[in-house]
Design brief:
The complex is a heterodimer of chains A (161) and B (281). Chain A has 161 residues and is an alpha+beta fold. In chain A, a hairpin with a 2-residue loop joins strand 1 and strand 2. In chain A, helix 1 crosses helix 4 and helix 2 packs across helix 4. Chain B is an alpha+beta fold and 281 residues long. Chain B has seven helices and 16 strands. In chain B, strand 1 and strand 2 form a beta hairpin. Classes of the chains: A alpha+beta (161), B alpha+beta (281). Chains A and B meet through strand 1, strand 2, strand 3 and strand 4 of A and strand 6, helix 3, helix 5 and helix 6 of B.
Chain lengths: 161, 281
């Protein structure tokens, strides 16, 4: 009965993945964001094919999570995956993910190790990742300067405050 | 380009480093000698390949005229990279730009902005941006007897082993912007030559009066931090993930703000020295 009133069928985005011990690294090439999913989040994300509802995913993972039919852990995972941009936006009904506090209150009974975690990091452009120049150093563009300001001084362009 | 060639065609050279070929042309043959000190570590001369990038040095040795500045120019392919009245600025600019070019486009190695030292047969990698305190930490490890690998880039091969990229250390003087060059030998340290597997990744940013109480970080999170300091991950994320997961697979990863560098080195010695020795790594 619940499944009929719960149309949420989360679908994961297309992304590069790499297993790293228990964790899963996901690289979103469209946004150049890298994500690290712990075991719980990774299991839920893999099941988000767009064909199953949250209770169905929960049922599939019940043996692994030992949640006794409670889908709050999967809902929390889906909420976090959604927020990280790892799920397609179409068809997502945000309100259905429950409030985080509610989910966490229910999930507290579950071992902390099972709480789904998603860590996200923006992969920088080469210029951002490279060493920056100090003040008065010759430069070509703002990104080269630690101050973020490459300007003209005399005949040269140098890093300015 | 033809005009430029007429301007700087007096002499030239071609070198190969990390799978890339770079050409250099000059208008005064004698500047090739000081330029040798600014070539990438481990490069070799190779005049039989087509250069992927061409630098042209135009050094103005004309007679100084009153009221007219003598300007030297460095070109990157056909575009002006730098103009300066100080010839040495051109060499520094060339060094910085050629390093960036190699780090971003090398087909054989993967570059991460990090300091690297060798410690009992394994590498300690200290990723971080400028002003994060990498160099001072590298210097402190060298004083403690580590082998010098790099102050700027951790250079990884496809198996996750780190290779040397040993330019002199650039140490900032008393927190100012001015930098001085220091050679590893000045700290009684040798330059590492053998590729090493990574034993420890230190994710520490300098904070005045902080005490270093690091947290162990998972391999996945460590990989993310390395990705955030890599130069070519956007161009080839699949390769980046493959190499960096190899790097962090067997490494300890510690994260936290640090105070003085000597405190970090002391803690690392206490915690990991015996471990590395007994494991024979």
């Amino acid at each position: 009965m619940k499944e009929q009133t719960d149309p949420l069928k989360p679908k994961r985005i297309k992304a590069l993945t790499r297993k790293c011990d228990d964790e899963l690294l996901v690289y979103d090439e469209r946004r150049h964001k890298a994500h690290c999913l712990n075991k719980t989040a990774a299991m839920v994300w893999r099941e988000c094919t767009g064909d199953c509802t949250v209770p169905e995913i929960s049922k599939k993972l019940d043996t692994d999570f030992q949640s006794g039919g409670d889908d709050s852990l999967v809902r929390l995972a889906v909420a976090r995956l959604y927020r990280a941009g790892l799920l397609e936006k179409s068809g997502m009904v945000h309100a259905e993910l429950l409030s985080r506090r509610e989910v966490l209150n229910r999930a507290r009974a579950i071992a902390m190790v099972a709480i789904p975690l998603v860590t996200t990091m923006l992969v920088p452009t080469p210029a951002r990742a490279a060493s920056c120049f100090p003040l008065s150093h010759l430069c070509n563009s703002n990104t080269q300067c630690c101050s973020g300001h490459c300007g003209v001084l005399g005949i040269n362009t140098v890093c300015l405050p | 380009m033809q005009k430029l060639y007429r301007l700087v065609g007096a002499a030239g050279m071609c070198f190969r480093a990390f799978g890339l070929t770079v050409g250099v042309r000059v208008n005064e043959p004698d500047i090739l000698e000081p330029l040798n000190n600014h070539l990438p570590p481990g490069c070799r001369f190779d005049n039989n390949r087509r250069a992927g990038l061409l630098y042209s040095f135009y050094v103005n040795r004309g007679q100084a005229l009153r009221g007219i500045r003598r300007v030297h120019t460095l070109y990157r392919n056909s575009a002006i990279l730098l103009r300066s009245e100080d010839e040495n600025d051109l060499y520094d600019g060339f060094e910085s730009d050629v390093d960036s070019y190699i780090a971003e486009t090398s087909p054989t190695r993967f570059f991460v902005h990090a300091g690297v030292v060798g410690w009992h047969g394994r590498a300690i990698v200290i990723p971080g941006r400028s002003y994060s305190g990498k160099s001072s930490l590298v210097r402190e490890f060298l004083r403690a007897g580590a082998a010098y690998y790099s102050d700027e880039f951790a250079v990884f091969d496809r198996n996750g082993y780190v290779h040397s990229f040993s330019r002199p250390l650039r140490i900032r003087v008393d927190g100012s912007d001015a930098q001085t060059l220091k050679f590893a030998s000045e700290f009684g340290s040798a330059i590492g030559t053998e590729p090493l597997s990574v034993g420890l990744v230190i994710l520490a940013t300098y904070k005045k009066e902080a005490s270093w109480q690091p947290l162990a970080v998972s391999a996945g999170e460590g990989t993310l931090k390395l990705l955030a300091n890599s130069l070519s991950a956007r161009a080839n994320p699949s390769r980046a993930l493959r190499i960096l997961t190899q790097v962090t697979k067997s490494a300890h990863i510690l994260r936290g703000p640090r105070g003085e560098a000597c405190e970090v080195v002391r803690m690392v010695r206490e915690r990991f020295e015996s471990q590395y020795r007994t494991s024979g790594r």
